[in-house]
Amino acid sequence: MMMRAALPLCLGLVLLAGCSSVPEVATRETAAAQAAPYPALAPLSGLLASAEAPDRATSAEAELTARAARLRARAAGLRQLPAG
Asked: What is the 3-state secondary structure (H, E, C) of 62-81?
């Protein structure tokens, strides 16, 4: 019963929100932005080829995996030492 009353209320609030005007905040451009040249256009085939190439994240992942293995081996070695 409560859901039936809430549905028209929510619908009314959504419709009321659609009637409001939003101030234009992000429309101001600085003089430097207006004077800047347009970016150069690049062919799509070149962009797709560079996107498929291995990137720095792939090599960073390999480095971190190797480092984690070295740290695990070091921890295992430290566990073997006698407490004293």
From this structure: HHHHHHHHHHHHHHHHHHHC
For 60-83, what is each residue's pLDDT tens digit? 888 999 999 999 999 999 999 887
Overall pTM > 0.90? no
**70 lies in some domain:** yes
CA distance 17 to 11: 10
17-48 pLDDT, tens per residue?
A: 877 776 666 667 788 888 999 888 888 888 88
Contacts of 54 (CB under 8 A, 6+ apart): none
Residue with tokens 């003089």: 31
Q: Specify the 3-state DSSP secondary structure of 3.
A: helix
Does a structural domain hold residue 68? yes
Domain containing 72: what range?
A: 56-84
In a domain, 84, yes or no: yes
Q: What total of structural domains would you count in the chain? A: 1
